Fold this protein.
Amino acid sequence: MTGTGPRSSGRHSRRTFLATVGTGVTLSTSGCTELFTEVSSWGDQLSVTITTVPDDDDRQSNGIFKHLESSLRAAGIDVTPELRTTAQFEKKVLIDQDFDIFVGRYPGTPRPDGLYELLHSTFAYEPGWQNPYGMTDIDLDDRLERLRHATGTDRSAAIESVFDSFLDTKPFVPICAPSIYYAVNDQQFTGWDRQSFRTRLGYVDLDPAAAVDQFDGLVTDARPMQNLNPLATHYRHTGAITSLLYDSLATRSGAGLSPWMAHDWEWRDGRLTATMRPDLTSHDEEPVTAEDVAFTFEFLADLSLGRADSPIPAPRFRRETSAVTSATATDDETVEFTVDASREVATSVLTVPILPEHVWRPIVDELDEETASTATWLREELMNEEISRVGSGPYRFGSWVQGDLLTLDRFDGHFSVEDPDLPGVPVESLVLRNASNGSVAIEMVDAGDASALVTPIEADVIGETQEMETAARIHDPGWAYYQIGFNTQKHPFSNHRFRRAVASLIDRQWLAETVFHGHAQPLSVPKVDSSAMDDYAWTGADPETPFVGTDGEIDVEAARDLFRKASFEYNDSGELVVDD
Amino acid sequence: MLVGLLSRATVIVALLLVIAIWQVIGFDTLFRALRNWRPRVRAALPVTLALVPVLIVNKLARQDLVTISQEYGFRVGDLFWVIEGEFILLFESVASTPLTQYFSFIYIYGYAFLLIFPVVMYFTLRDSTRLRRLLGAYALNYTIGVTLYVLFHAFGPRQYFGSDVETMLYTFEPSYQLLTREINHYTNVFPSLHTSLSATVMIFAIRSRSQFPAWTPTASVLAVSVWLSTMYLGIHWAIDVLGGLLLAGTCVWLSCRLIGRYDVDSHLQPAYDRLAAVVDRVKTTGDSADERGHR
């Protein structure tokens, strides 16, 4: 047990081992865990846990992890990895918020108000992709508030002001935005370039070849085959697959919104009024009306539906729902939202999936009092994979082999089947299979064994698409980016000086060139769709925290100086020490 | 794709079996044993039946077992990383394409052959004890192995070292992942069942060297190759391999203690008799029905 690999000294390794027992291993009794955590603090070298996913799940996260690990080590900080499957990783980071530093892929959003969701202190203790860093900065909050209400040119200025604060405080380090490519088979479908697999229309706005009556999709992220619950944030990336089961009032189309359940909407004086199509029905033949829309917003704002003392918001769609003050059905087909935000922000509430009241209300009503009023239990209960998958979307749940295969069947009662202005639902079934890895998926699409690989091709196999004979590679702008996130609620990550020093240990340019094989754009600020990005475009280094070193190798002394300047100390053996 | 892989595997393993039967056992001996299959099959049946429920449980409930392991299992992968560090990356320094080809072949085909062949081989022996003990040891390996997989939740070294393991099986031959995924989940690495089962075969090969002298060195080379392949290909930690060896020793010892001691077969006699009676009755009814039909 004492021999611990080539690079550790004896003293160091013992502590590493104890730290691991304290943080890495699940012990059944919490008392025992606490004891070991105490033990680990006898040591004075700073030891951090990096939480990330295994190489099989995401080779690029693994590459960033290894770079971060060796850089931190070189700077005298001890590192313990904590690997989790993607769903478990997101549960740990986003729901339990139990981590030091994480390396992961953020699904992203083109909307600049995504910054509000990502960084505002109001979400500091909420699960989901809203402020997982636990950031509470009053100055940043002010700037985010301004962003949410700004319109026109003020908006650009507001975004820039958020970026400036971001560059200074570094709640997380954005690494790079990967180039998104998919492999598609033109012999089975055409029209691939019209929409994106990130959105609902990407799967239905297609033209099947004669005699093709099934869409055979491949994925390398099997989470949709494990859980299809629209609330289960740790199983969703873009949520495109669940959006086939659950309709929304409007649907994303290209860069804008197109009518979907609502055929029209109007914005006036902080009020958004949506008019829905008549005679909408759910998969179980129940009518879906404006009442269901009002219910959805009530439910997402408080999953307990009033049973808990204070509201328990859903872990997804917070950006949209947090701006909604009220959602009222004025008649069967009209919903009126009062929204505390600008028009630009307000229309995004139209993309929230509508959860039929007759399905979800009974689930909450039937919970026992304790579950219904305890936030963690209630959320766990409602993010369950077994919850009814009855929505009103163009496809209904057919069957699955969990983790391997998912079959969705066309919902013939869907409005888009009849409407000549909509793409309709061109094929009878949509099948998704887990392809294990990108190489296999590319080969299968090329051989005609599948219609498309609908998850982005990993950077390390993008090159293999050049060998495709029948399949084509399509590009998608995409908004996802990789990041290194800090738990700012914990010492020393609560100190922005420490975070800035860590940011300087990361060679984003080098990562984009090697780990991403050049198929990525390094970032210094979060990627959003705004002209404000131009002034913050990557120019080879972060303007505030440039990399100290060359070609991915840190300059050890310069790195240590950064930590010294941030008031951290080193002991005689060159270890960065922290006071407890 | 999976079907293609499976048929290729079947052909290759069958070919290896034919060569080994010809060289180690001799076709005459095998045919003689096959002609007299009844007592042999009957002797091996109880222990084989013991293996069936384990295989079924693992096949049907694999996802559930993984979930249980995820919730309650000890997460030891991070600890293995701390303990053994970059040990398995040592193999990278001797890596070459022929070696990667060899170890990939061993990991998939060599391993399958190594497990199947001794069953055929010991089947030809008049005394069925050896065969029963081997099958018993397989069953024990598998049962204990699957239990440990639930108890310990860990990722293999390739999940940590990623692209540093340039000889990774699925980098070399990505489609193999379709095959291995059917058998195992990537959080099941401790102990290495590849190691334990191949070591089991090796121990038996050494014990039966007087009867099958040609098999002992072959099995030993193959078994050691399997152990090395699991590390060379980045699939297992050295700790998993050690765990596998320990498991193999335990299972062989247990199997030899348990099997050949109790006469399970005699307890099954009434069941066999009843079965024979049922078969007879079916036959007679079938015959008479046939006769009626003809008339």
